[in-house]
Amino acid sequence: MIIDLDGTLIDSLKDLVVAVNLTLKKLGYPTRNNLFIQNAVGNGARELLATCLPGNQVADDQSYELFISYYNSNCNKYTKIYPGVIDFLKKTTHLKKAILTNKPIAPTMKIIRSLQLDHFFDLVYGGDSFPHRKPHPIGLKTILQSFNILASQSMMIGDGFQDIRAARAIGMDSIAIVNRIGGKTELLQEMPTYVVKNFHEISAMFSRSI
């Protein structure tokens, strides 16, 4: 099982909103509303900031480092685990698992450790762990090589089109969780193998297969 983080395992939107708007305020720009920031999540921290900056501004190293500083300091203040996640992870301890997220690895590790999720996963990779982020499949390929398994023996779980597109690129089955952070229309256009609303439904799928 290769699983996304934001919008999949955890609800991290509020902490992201806080960090983005603190950064915008510090730079002297107007803040963004929750929906705008939600729609900008999914392609990594720098792209999130670039989307939220005014149209004539770029996410240079200085503004990006400011955002990362705010986010690293507050990334686990409001973030919480979605219902059903822990039950699923406990029921599937016999399966190897990895996290593959476009979030930078430093806040990723801080969050999963603070939420006591880290011990469920054999591997954890962030958006800065590879030269390319999802939907590029390099992260999935690396994880498969590490586990010494085929794409046909694995599955990607995520809430964004990036997750499903990356899986489809290498012939991997996928589970799309709808109505989370990722846009539903874009998500379904990637033709996921399965579509669910939450981890309770995923647990039911695996209970039937065990």
Structure description:
By secondary structure, the protein is an alpha/beta fold. It folds into 2 domains: 2-11 and 79-209, Rossmann fold; 13-74, DNA polymerase, domain 1. Helix content is 46%, strand content 11%. The chain contains 10 helices and 8 strands. It has helices at 13-27, 34-40, 45-52, 61-74, 85-91, 105-114, 138-147, 161-169, 184-189, 199-209; strands at 2-3, 10-11, 80-81, 98-100, 123-125, 155-158, 173-177, 194-196. The strands form 2 sheets. The protein has a 6-stranded parallel sheet, sandwiched between helices. Strand 4 (98-100), helix 6 (105-114) and strand 5 form a beta-alpha-beta unit. Helix 1 packs across helix 4 (61-74) and helix 5 packs parallel to helix 10 (199-209). The longest helix has 15 residues, at 13-27. The radius of gyration is 17 Å and the shape is globular. The model has no long low-confidence stretch (mean pLDDT 95).
